Amino acid sequence: MASEEVLPLDTSEKLLLDSYRAIPNKEIQESILKITTNATRHSD
């Protein structure tokens, strides 16, 4: 199994993660996750 390098989060990444975790509605969390993963697939 290859070891993965662990990188520290920058301020905006930490804010995004903390905000995501603070959302009480799991359906909203899933929607946000879909939006972000789709955005990475369609970026040029």
Structural commentary:
- It is extended and about 30 Å long.
- With 44 residues, the chain is an all-alpha fold.
- The protein starts with 10 loop residues before the first helix and ends with a helix.
- Helices cover 66% and strands 0% of the residues.
- It has one domain (11-42).
- It contains two helices and no strands.
Could you say which structural class the secondary elements and strand pairing correspond to?
mainly alpha
Q: Report on the biggest sheet.
A: none
Distance between the termini: 32 Å
Counted by DSSP, the helix tally is 2
The share of residues in extended strands comes to: under 5%
Helix-strand pattern, N to C? HH
- The average pLDDT is 90
Helicity, as a percent range: 55-70%
Can you tell me the overall shape?
extended
